[in-house]
Amino acid sequence: MLTLAFDTSTDVATSALVDDEEVLGERSSRAVRLLEDVDALLRQGGAAPSDVDLLAVGTGPGSFTGIRIGLATARGLALALGVRGVGVSTLDALAAGAPGAVPVIDAKRREVFALVDGEPRVLAPADLDLPAGSVCVGDGAVRYRAVLEERGLVVPPDGDERHVPRARSHAQLANRGLAGEPRPIDEIEPVYLRIPDAERSVSA
């Protein structure tokens, strides 16, 4: 099965083309370059757009704008290619790429998104209650390194690839049936965990 996967929920947008378990190509850039990256991946993998069997798209949590870009792109591709998709939590993808580590994504507003007892939550970095020695990965872990390390947690060096939600992990979770059954892209829901600032302002 040829799976095209991408995640634009964080500052680093990742994409990958995976044939079953074989990674044919990977790219990292910005969300606004996603379609360019998809085109480059297909050419690199010697595949035509019509060869794609499944889309695996990151659903967040993360940047509201980034999540929307990813889902909108997935909808357009699904319509053009006539394929279904699987939504993959960005936290789950980070965890899959760093077995044993706790994924921590920068949520802005001095908060982070993290998996707590297997559930996604938004909280202050200082409120992340984990056993001393736990490894934390993700851009939130990097940003709040001092806070986390003060609590006895371990954050790998900034350049460690485990801090990036690699799209290969999205594809692997989807292909192994660990992210739900393929469905129409329109049925895939984003994981925001809190309302966007624009909606907050309107409701205030």
Give the total of beta strands: 9
Strand content: 15-25%
CATH architecture verdict of the largest domain: 2-Layer Sandwich
Main sheet summary? 5 strands, mixed
Number of helices, counting only DSSP H or I runs of 4 residues or more:
7
- The overall pLDDT average reads 94
Structural class: alpha/beta
What gap, in angstroms, lies between the N and C termini?
48 Å
Instruction: Enumerate the strands of the largest sheet in spatial order, edge to edge or round the barrel.
Output: 3-2-1-4-5
Give the domain tally: 2
CATH class of the largest domain: Alpha Beta
> What is the radius of gyration computed over CA atoms, rounded to a whole number of angstroms?
17 Å
Give the CATH superfamily of the largest domain. Answer: ATPase, nucleotide binding domain
Query: What level of helicity do the residues show?
Result: 25-40%
Uncertain spans = 198-204
> What do we call the CATH topology of the largest domain?
Nucleotidyltransferase, domain 5
Shape: elongated
